[in-house]
């Protein structure tokens, strides 16, 4: 499973904690903010805090967070990929 990571949108920092099955817990300003679920590549849903059921409706902030989650590449994997390419190239 993916490790927690941070993203920044504008001047706002978010901590992202993957829970599996395209579900994430989002922290904003050091406090639990939302649970979100990937619906499609560009559409993300907030989960109801009491029932954990998806709340349907357009939310630009949640979609922006989701876009950053999809774009995020863990640093460790980048380094491992570079090392693998170096080995393939005989370096």
Task: Please outline what is shown here.
This protein has 91 residues and is α+β, with helices and mostly antiparallel strands. It has two helices and six strands; from the N terminus they run ββββββαα. A hairpin with a 6-residue loop joins β5 and β6.
Lateral strand order in the biggest sheet: 1-2-3-4-5-6
Compute the number of helices: 2
Helix/strand structural class: alpha+beta
Largest sheet: 6 strands, antiparallel
Low-confidence stretches: none
What portion of residues is helical? 25-40%
Order of helices and strands: EEEEEEHH
Gyration radius, rounded: 16 Å
What is the beta-strand fraction? 35-45%
Q: Describe the global form.
A: globular
Number of separate strands: 6
Distance between the termini: 31 Å
Look at the structure and give the mean pLDDT: 87
Structure in words:
- By secondary structure, the protein is of the alpha+beta class.
- Helices cover 29% and strands 37% of the residues.
- It has a six-stranded antiparallel β-sheet with strand order 1-2-3-4-5-6.
- Strand 5 and strand 6 form a beta hairpin.
- The chain is globular, with a radius of gyration of 16 Å.
- 13% of the residues are buried.
- The mean pLDDT is 87.
